[in-house]
């Protein structure tokens, strides 16, 4: 092969030689040049047409119609075509191996377009959702899986949390859906059968709820008797301290049971359908008032609360007593772990993410490794978060579930050098 430059030089040399010979023989130099140029153009057009005809033939056709200097160009095209074919075969083999590997997973995988149309799925997805290869390709997911909650979950375009729903065609089966956005391509939907885990979780919730209910009545009776003993001075001076400690621990246990019952209710019941307008500035005022009372009850007389920012015209549709409880838990949690004399700041502001209500305290900083687990039941970071502080260890778990019921999110930010910041963010497009 001569290359593009070499081919051009050879063609030019041949035409110039033909012009020189014709001019020498005939003596008519101009006429000979015109004739030779015309013949060269005609041959070039003929060779070009031969190249087009060869390009229109099926792939891997041999080079038989374009001899001469055009052979170099067609040979390069053929080599490039063979390289592309090899690359395509490698990609197809890789894709086939990938599909085979994904097909062996115990989780259903569904590749979706940006408009939620099905492109590909593995065998497990066929078993879980009843997809059929010969009928359901390029069909909208929501036409096949007619679950309104899944459609609402997809419309929110916020996939940080998974969603667990009943199977669309198997009674008693529970499926967990996780959506993974793929940039400029669509989505990957992961479906898992979580029936067993759901049953175990339901058993745990029922156990906690039943035990809490069973403990609530006898504990109320015990508190009543202890209070009667103290009010009527039925014990001597030596016994007063013991009864007071018993009453204090019984009261703490009653608070723990009350929080467990509330958490169980939030986990097992659906959000109320009839929602009412709740103003964010009212929530800040409620947190300020409840926090002030709580600080006085703990004897932290030097602790001060402040409100920064006003949101008089902004609000959301929700359940007042739930949102008020969430705000109270955030504020009392900040007071509990801050020293006396701290300044607890309550802030409200609006940005592109929505409306955020912040609570900033002066308590000890928290390592980043602990932050994701702070909303777990009874999780404590260190000794500073011990039962001696008076908390039940369920406050942030309650806040998290209340905000989830209102399609809001809880964020906690802190470092060992910076005091914790708790924020509840309510999207504007709710």
Any key phrases for this structure?
alpha+beta, 430 residues, single chain, 4 domains, Helix Hairpins, five-stranded mixed β-sheet, Beta-Lactamase, five-stranded antiparallel β-sheet, 12 strands
Question: What's the short version?
Answer:
By secondary structure, the protein is of the alpha+beta class. The chain has 11 helices and 12 strands.
Can you characterise this structure?
The structure is a single chain. The chain folds into 4 domains: 3-98, no CATH class; 105-193, Beta-Lactamase, CATH 3.30.450; 199-268, Signal transduction histidine kinase, dimerisation/phosphotransfer (DHp) domain (Helix Hairpins, Orthogonal Bundle), CATH 1.10.287.130; 276-426, Heat Shock Protein 90. The chain is of the alpha+beta class and 430 residues long. A hairpin with a 2-residue loop joins strand 9 (343-351) and strand 10. It has a 5-stranded antiparallel β-sheet with strand order 2-1-5-4-3, sandwiched between helices. It has helices at residues 3-26, 29-55, 70-103, 123-129, 141-144, 148-156, 195-231, 237-268, 280-297, 320-336, 395-405; strands at 108-112, 118-121, 163-166, 174-182, 186-193, 276-279, 304-308, 315-318, 343-351, 354-360, 409-415, 418-426. It starts with a helix and ends with a strand. Helix 1 packs antiparallel against helix 2 (29-55), helix 9 (280-297) crosses helix 10 (320-336) and helix 10 (320-336) packs antiparallel against helix 11 (395-405). The chain has 11 helices and 12 strands.
Number of self-contained structural domains: 4
Rg, nearest Å: 38 Å
Strand order of the largest sheet: 2-1-5-4-3
**Helical residue percent?**
40-55%
Determine the structural class based on helices, strands and strand pairing. Answer: alpha+beta
Q: Can you tell me the CATH topology of the largest domain? A: Heat Shock Protein 90
CATH class of the largest domain: Alpha Beta
* Strand content bin: 15-25%
